[in-house]
Amino acid sequence: MTRLTHLDIPFFDDLHREQAAALDAWCAEHLQHVDHTDTDAACRRLVTMLGEGGHLRWCVPAAHGGALPALDSRALVVARETLARHDGLADFAFAMQGLGTGAITLAGSPQVQAEVLPRVARGEWISAFALSEPQAGSDVAAMSCTVRDEGDHWVLNGEKTWISNGGIADVFTVFARTLNGEGQPVGGPGSKPTASISGFAVRADTPGLEIAERIQVIAPHPLARLRFVNCLIPKDSLLGAPGEGFKLAMRTLDIFRASVAAAALGFARRALDEAIAHAKARHMFGQTLADFQLTQAAIGEMASAVDAASLLTYRAAWLRDVKAVRTTREAAMAKMTATENAQRVIDRALQMHGGLGVKVGSTVESLYREIRALRIYEGATEVQQLIVGRDVLGA
Ligand SMILES: Cc1cc2nc3c(=O)[nH]c(=O)nc-3n(C[C@H](O)[C@H](O)[C@H](O)COP(=O)(O)OP(=O)(O)OC[C@H]3O[C@@H](n4cnc5c(N)ncnc54)[C@H](O)[C@@H]3O)c2cc1C
Do the strands 238-239 and 197-203 form a parallel or antiparallel pair, or are they unpaired? Predict the structure, then answer.
């Protein structure tokens, strides 16, 4: 058994196994030395390092400097699982380069793709995904940010919040309600609220784009509330056709939800590694912690929770890559199960560490904070339950 034996299953090709081995070795060599004191600086540094190491090429297609002809879900899964096992912020830095440009890859104009994607793949630009608003989180259709067609350009107004990389990003994928020249939502009167949402690539240096608030969270990441005040954005920044933004956002999330599951898996694997090492080393009552049957049962449950989550995650990625089918249900199952299981595994690992588990700076303490947001963002667990439940009932 090696650290990567779990990838020796038919869901993966040798390409993925080689990718994981190379990235795992790269992480061991490079990530120790990154100073995390200043989160923004650390994140910028990690993006530069990942770009120089060639690891961001999995985030864009080959035509724009990527590794493979199209986004490969298994490569994203392998990258995030491996990075998260080493360092949550490194995983975050990688993930946002993919999530922030996913809709540009899927539907950007040739000009926007050529401007953004190669720079993101080289780690020269940082990207972000701006969907959530103060009054529109789980309920995306309630969004009130608007973009108005003013002939030779668009005008963007409103707010977005919880935007990862807000404050350090060079380019944002922004979703907004689209109004025609008369100020009416595109999609026509009586259409569904989602029928007027469109996606846009918006440069961070656009006049009128402000960082309204920097947000601190329990596992530090660059995060902000954005404000758009009469931002003029070029016509070709529209992603796809007007009114296609909601579907585009959901297609992007279908790809990246499986990768959130993979990040949770990376955290859970690390917690399991830490729990096993600690249980074998800690002496009490004349034996080691690992000698107690209660500990063996806990480790057995943790290892099974990790494997169950990994199989759902790998299946979602494999189905999208190999069977080329829509994987909304499978990605939701994977995200929900992997994040919830990881939370339980990490909590058990922390408990086994006793007082050391809650000591600030210990690995399990930071994993305990890192995992929490994954059960909320890109659709909270309850939202995933509904996606799966409705799909199962519909089928
Ligand atoms: C660290 C972090 C990073 C983020 N990064 C980004 C980003 O980069 N870009 C972006 O656009 N957004 C981002 N988000 C926002 C994230 O996607 C939202 O927080 C999430 O969608 C939930 O929205 P909300 O916070 O408004 O909670 P609400 O929508 O108010 O939901 C609150 C809670 O209600 C419950 N709930 C939701 N729906 C239902 C239901 N139907 N039935 C019963 N219960 C329900 C869930 O438990 C949920 O957590 C980020 C959030 C965090 C915490």
Answer: antiparallel
- Which structure tokens are listed for 222? 């660059």
CA of 380 from ligand 1 middle (Å) equals 6
Return left, alpha or beta for 162; rule: phi > 0 is left, psi -120 to 50 is alpha, else beta. left
Does residue 190 carry a pLDDT above 90? no
Helix (H) or strand (E) holding 99: helix 88-107
Q: Would the pTM count as exceeding 0.70? A: yes
Q: Amino acid identity, residue 205?
A: D
The CA distance from 337 to 327, in Å, is 15
- What pLDDT is stored for residue 345 in this prediction? 98
Supply the DSSP string of 43-72, one letter for each residue.
HHHHHHHHHHTTGGGGGSBGGGT-SBSS--
Q: Which residues have C-beta within 8 Å of that of residue 341, sequence separation ≥ 6?
A: 264, 268, 305, 306, 308, 309
Q: Is the distance from the beta carbon of residue 295 to the nearest atom of ligand 1 less than 6 Å?
A: no
What is the length of the chain? 395
CA dist 130 and 350 (Å) reads 34
195 CB near ligand 1 (under 6 Å):
no
